[in-house]
What we know:
Number of domains: 3
Strand content: 5-15%
Oligomer: single chain
CATH class of the largest domain: Alpha Beta
Strand order of the largest sheet: 2-3-4-1-5
Low-confidence stretches: 1-10, 99-119
Distance between the termini: 41 Å
CATH topology of the largest domain: Rossmann fold
Shape: globular
Number of helices: 21
Amino acid sequence: MTQSIQQQAITFEIALKIADAAVFAKTKRHLKNIEVAVLQGALLGQRYDKIAAECDYAPEYIKHDVGPKLWQILSSSLGEKVNKTNLMAVLAQRASEEVKIENYSSFPNPQSLDFTSHSPELESPVGLIPLESALYVERPPVESRCYEEITKPGALIRIKAPSQMGKTSLMVRILAHAKQHNSAEVRTVALSLQRAERSIFNDLDKFLRWFCASITRKLQLPHRVEDCWSETFGSKSNCTAYFEDCLLPDINGVLVLALDQVDEVFLHPEIADDFFTLLRSWYEEAAYGDSGNPLWQNLHLVIVHSTEVYIPLDINKSPFNVGLAIELQTFTPLQVFNVAQRYGIHLSEGELSELMQLVDGHPYLVQQALYHLAQQNLTLKQLVQTAATDAGIYSNHLHRHLRSLQEHPQLAAAYEEVIHCSTPVELEQTLAFKLHSMGLVKLQGNRVISSCELYRQYFEEALRPNSTYKYVDT
């Protein structure tokens, strides 16, 4: 970063609001996600190739398309020539001329960012981040791609990321967008497969009956599973017929079905192949259009899972190689800096670097650190010094991981090998994928490395023979 982040700590949010308000007044639209990303990078003095890398776009697209168009629309909206070099000066001048800092809350917020003019209430950021929360951090272009895709007939979106990376928080935003931005009547259902009894996964017929009954209940429709299930046909045919004859016609519109914790099915190969083949067949039926049953175009699917698919599936029958694939990444330094602002915390470049070195941008770990810093009950130096100990803010989180490892000695032995090696380690595939789903390792081709310094420090001691570290059941 060629300019000091600390210099932008007070002015970035203000600058963004001024730019967005000016564009909105001129064009009746807010800045797009990619335009906000370019604006952020420009305010930090980043080159176009750096901005493109952080946004997962081609540098030529940012340099020759998005950037020039953004400066053009800002010049038109602000009434003077704006470019990458003078952007901050123009916006700072406009701030001093037009609005006192305490009145900035009158500007409309960008739709793509949930910035507020004050720090959010200090609620511990655990689990799902509510729709109205200012603490949700977008990772362009992920959200915009999902929002566009979910409105298409027969859409299928696959969201993959390790535990506590924000998958479910993104999922609920996709459902909300589908409900608000679809011309047809839309019903949404979020179904976590973790809610099924373990015994149900042992029998395909029981599982699919539970599946249909659970969706019916969430839609508050009459329960007709038993009436519609026929002994003449197999379980997959019965499930398909139930959707065609009962669910989709009764809705008379679009059903957006989000399946969370799909990894549960990976653990049960006796039903996995049939269930995933079924989902793929529905997606293909929608693609047939008028030559198939057009009702299936009204089913839009979101599949959420924590790890790679490590069960053998026929490539022509798997839902994991069709539709839109989204793999959530850790926060970039700029995203960590922005969420810190939302907590009312202004990190210097050195402090930001220190936090990134500890947790490597992991969303949950970042949010926890910023929450505790915002409470002002410890300093960043104290947080870093105690983070990998039982006295630190992550103790319960680390204990849960330790318990999982101690209950699965093979997994613990594999991870112990990883943290004691300075280079990426090749593990048995299933073990690598399970450690990745827990968020403990990063995949690098066929090899893995420990995902962050916090885990390396803690488990280097906790997994040592004769270690006194014990998990605490909380």
